[in-house]
Amino acid sequence: MRIGELAKATGTKAETIRYYEREGILPAADRTDSNYRDYSDEHLATLIFVRRARALGFTMAQVRELLALSDHEDKPCRDVDQLVQRQLGEVTRKIADLTSLQNELQHMLRSCQADRIGECRIVESLARPLR
Amino acid sequence: MRIGELAKATGTKAETIRYYEREGILPAADRTDSNYRDYSDEHLATLIFVRRARALGFTMAQVRELLALSDHEDKPCRDVDQLVQRQLGEVTRKIADLTSLQNELQHMLRSCQADRIGECRIVESLARPLR
DNA sequence: CTTGACCTTGTAGTTACTACAAGGTGCATA
DNA sequence: TATGCACCTTGTAGTAACTACAAGGTCAAG
After folding, report:
1. What ipTM was reported for this prediction?
2. pLDDT digits over A21-70, tens only?
3. Distance between CA atoms of B31 and B33, rounded to whole angstroms?
4. Shortest CB distance from B87 goes to which of A105, A113, A126?
5. Chain D positions under 7 Å from a protein CB?
6. Chain B: nearest CA to A26, how far in angstroms?
7. Please, what CATH class does the domain formed by B1-57 belong to?
8. From the Cβ of A102, is strand D under 7 Å away?
């Protein structure tokens, strides 16, 4: 698939895709005879992954690390283990925070549907468990 | 509490705190006789909220919206409802993505602990449910 | 044969910070 | 009393991760 198609499929600007290639986040695509980038389904999957990971608050460096886990066949288990452990900790913390926020939003929604204004604990939803 | 104390308590640079004040994300603090910013516990809670929300991938504009829900007493339920609905959708999607990623990381960890290298589906963990 | 998608290099704007510098006040402590 | 550190202000500039142009060129479908 060509860059425009990939851009559309992932909601990413073509310029951003080229930027990811320059930054080594997305592997360079094959080229057609006319020098157009020709993306595979793996490229598509990787790009979706990158975009989601970024939307979840991971930095480019973290995305790089996560992607590196993909070819951990090369590296000894011990090395990979530490990295996975660290990422897992962060992911778990994010889920906890989001779940707390989700609960409060649902609470607000229930209050609204009952057409009464409940007290709002939205700030507390994330602020409370001070780690 | 003074800015340095607040900075330390939240892991935020003092300069960032002043920046949030300029941007209207954090309400201006009271001032001491010597013109030092004097923060309350509510400021602390709000700042923790802002930092977490940012780390979870919300933009400043979205954080502003979330904070605005705090004083929804002023506005009719219908208006708030829509906003909450929208935020809830995003939060739920983020949780789903993170849970999927968490599962894959845990799977990798189990493989590593058994000292064998499992096949890696980390990219697929986020790429699969193409919405 | 024109129109639109693609190619390149390069510059500059945006968001959300982060880091200085310069010049000044407040205040605790040696 | 002097030193030093935390704070104040305004301002400029750097960083990360894009995003948007422009200029100049190639390619291919209608």
Report:
1. 0.86
2. 999 999 999 999 999 999 999 999 999 999 999 999 999 999 999 898 88
3. 7
4. A105
5. 6-10, 16-21, 26-28
6. 12
7. mainly alpha
8. no
